[in-house]
Every structure is written in structure tokens, then in C-alpha cells.
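> call design_seq(struct)
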């Protein structure tokens, strides 16, 4: 357990006795590295990533709150990922080591989203598992709704050799075409740009690639997103090298289709577990 600096921002490093390690920025409560015990780095972080007030980090696991994408009036993906969070707690527990980070409303957040809230992210590391729990408490006196996601960038040696399973038979929205479909093939190959929202996923989603396997399970996050920008859009992104679309695949756990309603004083939580 140690404090360090990554991308010019304060970060906490979680370590376990068996050699697992994860690094969490206080900026955005953003997990930027995860090395399971005995395994190499599992997350993709762009070598051009930047962090700072109002800046979102390209890669790792951004926290999306209180709005997914442009599905609402707020800036894209809300504001949680580009604000400073407070490190509330960190240290070893009985079976794992964890860090707890908190974000509360400010004049700046209320200017764009007029609600009082506290968001808390708990990152737990053990062996070959990384668990993240996002909790949201309505600290105001009136109800609000939100959407949320953990926008996980998984590392690939070549995404064209990767396969995704666990989605067979599921309904999805193809965000590139504005159409809806049912998943008819298993496993799913990634051959270029992809942007899909899968609704009400129950089974773990598994990324299988040469020398690499990661399972993503979730509780309280009903939806999953598969996203890769492909060659053309990657070339247009200033914070992503042109060919790095080959080295990543986003498999996100999310609440998108049905916004979460929270009455005054009510709390919601959801979690995802990555297992290598």
C-alpha cells in the first residue's frame, strides 16, 4: 500500500501478499492499472492519456456518472470521471486490500446537475480478482434519476484475435446504425469499429484472447457495452495512437436502459468483478 503519482495526479497503489497490484487515481477514482497475481497488465492505458480538472483519462476504468454517453443534457459521460475524488480509506482487509473513494456535489456539479449526492467507489484487490462497487446516496430533499457505467478498457495483443462470449441470445442496440438485433453468434469476433449496448445480461461476459482470459460479472449493472473505435476513429483521437485500437476492447458494465431512480435519503449500489 503506497501513494504515488500517475499522469501528474495522486494515486494509491494496492498490493496483496501474492503479488497482485492495482493503481487508482484520485482524479476520477480511475483505476489505471491491474496486474493480477502472476499475470501481466490486464488494462489498456493510452500512452497519450492525460489527466487533470475537466480531463478524462483514455483507458483504465473510468467511472461514468450521472449520465451515460450523450443520453441526456449533461456533457458526454457526465462529470464523475474528470473530478477530484477524496480517498476515504485504504489498506488490507481480511481476504483482500481495498481503497474507498468519495465524490460529493459542489457548486460546479450543481450548476450542470442540480442535485445533492454522495458517490462512493470501493476498489477491492485479491489474487486474480478486481472488484469495484459503486454506491450513490441521494443526500438532498428531492428525487433524481441517473445512469452509470464502469467503462473498462481491457488490454489485447491484437483485438482481431480476441473473442467475446456470454452474450448469445441477448438483445442489443447497435449504436453505430441505430438498429436493434439479437446476438446470434458465439463467440463474437471484433474486426473493426463496434459500439453495442446489450440489455439485461445475466451471464458473465468473457474476453478470450491468445495468452489472456478475463471474465466480467456484475450485480446491479444490468447492461453491457462492447466498444472499440476501429482504425478510422482511433486516428482522429488525439489521446490515442493510431494503431492502438488493436490493443484494447471496452467491455463495460452499466445501467443505461432504465435510469436509476433515487428518492431523498435513498442509496443504490452495483458492482463488477474482473477475474483473470
Amino acid at each position: 500500500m503506497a501513494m504515488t503519482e500517475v499522469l501528474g495526479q495522486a494515486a494509491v497503489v494496492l498490493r496483496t501478499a501474492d503479488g497482485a497490484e492495482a493503481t487508482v487515481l484520485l482524479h476520477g477514482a480511475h483505476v489505471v492499472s491491474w496486474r493480477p497475481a502472476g499475470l501481466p497488465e490486464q488494462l489498456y492505458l493510452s500512452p497519450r492519456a492525460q489527466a487533470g480538472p475537466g480531463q478524462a483519462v483514455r483507458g483504465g476504468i473510468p467511472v461514468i456518472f450521472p449520465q451515460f454517453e450523450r443520453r441526456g443534457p449533461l456533457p458526454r459521460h457526465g462529470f464523475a470521471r474528470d473530478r477530484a475524488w477524496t480517498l476515504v480509506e485504504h489498506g488490507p482487509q481480511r481476504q483482500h486490500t481495498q481503497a474507498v473513494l468519495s465524490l460529493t456535489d459542489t457548486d460546479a456539479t450543481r450548476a450542470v446537475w442540480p442535485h445533492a449526492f454522495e458517490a462512493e467507489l470501493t476498489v477491492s484487490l485479491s489474487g486474480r480478482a478486481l472488484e469495484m462497487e459503486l454506491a450513490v446516496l441521494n443526500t438532498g430533499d428531492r428525487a433524481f434519476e441517473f445512469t452509470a457505467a464502469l467503462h473498462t478498457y481491457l488490454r489485447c495483443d491484437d483485438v482481431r484475435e480476441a473473442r467475446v462470449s456470454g452474450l448469445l441470445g441477448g438483445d442489443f442496440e447497435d449504436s453505430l446504425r441505430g438498429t436493434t438485433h439479437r446476438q446470434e453468434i458465439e463467440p463474437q469476433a471484433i474486426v473493426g469499429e463496434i459500439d453495442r449496448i446489450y440489455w439485461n445480461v445475466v451471464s458473465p461476459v468473457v474476453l478470450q484472447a491468445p495468452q489472456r482470459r478475463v471474465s466480467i460479472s456484475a450485480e446491479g449493472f444490468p447492461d453491457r457495452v462492447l466498444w472499440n473505435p476501429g482504425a478510422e476513429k482511433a486516428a482522429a483521437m488525439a489521446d490515442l495512437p493510431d494503431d492502438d485500437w488493436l490493443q484494447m476492447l471496452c467491455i463495460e458494465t452499466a445501467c443505461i436502459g432504465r435510469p436509476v431512480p433515487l428518492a431523498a435519503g435513498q442509496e443504490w449500489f452495483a458492482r463488477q468483478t474482473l477475474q483473470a
